[in-house]
């Protein structure tokens, strides 16, 4: 089942520390020649961007209340549902109502009453799943979703601005229109226009198109562990923020940091100081959170060769998925996480996000600055994936099917699977380590801050932050996808993200590219599964 409309702009969970040269530092070799500028030293980012790495076992307990054995069991149920769903949808077109897992991990199959439904009911029961009676087939839901999408497109501007997404929810057997804010009269008008074709979910959440500034307050940053929402107000429409954007960069992402300062949504304090310095260093370069993969024009200060690229030392042994790496581009350094290790035409490669790559030919380095490979097959729009062709001397270190942070905090990947709504999944990246949640949507078209899209994406309700992009998403011991974007990318810490989301009635959400799409886009690519 494919969700064809996704109107909410999300902010990339990309990389991205843009760094300036300290006084006296030698510039790195960058093709363009930067204009002379006074050297500036940024305030320490250690507190704001420090690692929150946890082990997988701890993350499963903390985020899901599951043991590793329960996680593996539920992953297996999801994998079998994902395998059976497409076949049932084709064979029982007039009775198949979708597949999903409930909160207890029970595999459910929606069945519409009728002769064909009786056959599907028997087959699903024999396969060990629980049958749930529903009113609409997946075919009818998809057609209804298209109809609702057309209604939304034709709405008056004030109503259209309230809608952030249209999706099919198999757990409700309904089309859901997601909104942010709005007056009672507006929502009543929207309900009337939808004519019982969809349910409305209203969330008073900060709009990623406008409220994208870092959180913080005078006298402290996120590093003190105390969550804060100072300076953040729930958005009711996106129109105002977008109208202000002008030439300040990609609408919906950080865009021009100078512009964000003018809007007044960045609280005073150390984080604002960092942002102000960065905005002075990168005038007119567009987005920093998303768009950093693009070659930035007219950088004022080059990146020093010896600039630290990630927290902690580089690994010395086998390199698992989720390891920190960086690439240098004119004006800054992109920091991301490696994805699954694989092979292409017999040579080791690493799967990662394209918006971390800069462009084909960009060199990738470990946390200590040692280069290990070259970016290739970069496809930013639609699928957001790239491969790192590993240098010969690093070949053996990337012949591993592990994901995680090290020998005692890794998970072995033994195969691939497609995501299913309700399935439990985890991600790992160098910024936040392991975090786990529930798959809330599959087959979505995600608009990332108006600068790129992710076609056929799936979303997991969990926290991911800048630096986690390119990292792995998995369920049990099966690869599900590659981290691409997050709706809480600017909150600084997962503590802030959870608190702000809870206070505003929404959840942190990661958008990811299905691994099946990645493999299909690169014929001959295989993942390491042993």
From TrEMBL:
Keywords for this protein: Disulfide bond, Hydrolase, Protease, Serine protease, Signal
InterPro entries xref list: Pept_S1A_streptogrisin, Peptidase_S1_PA, Peptidase_S1_PA_chymotrypsin, Streptogrisin_prodomain, Trypsin_dom
Listed GO MF terms: serine-type endopeptidase activity
Entries under Pfam families matching the protein: Trypsin
Domain Peptidase S1 span(s) in chain numbering: 349-492
SUPFAM superfamilies on file: Trypsin-like serine proteases
Record-given protein name: Peptidase S1
Species whose genome carries this gene: Dietzia psychralcaliphila
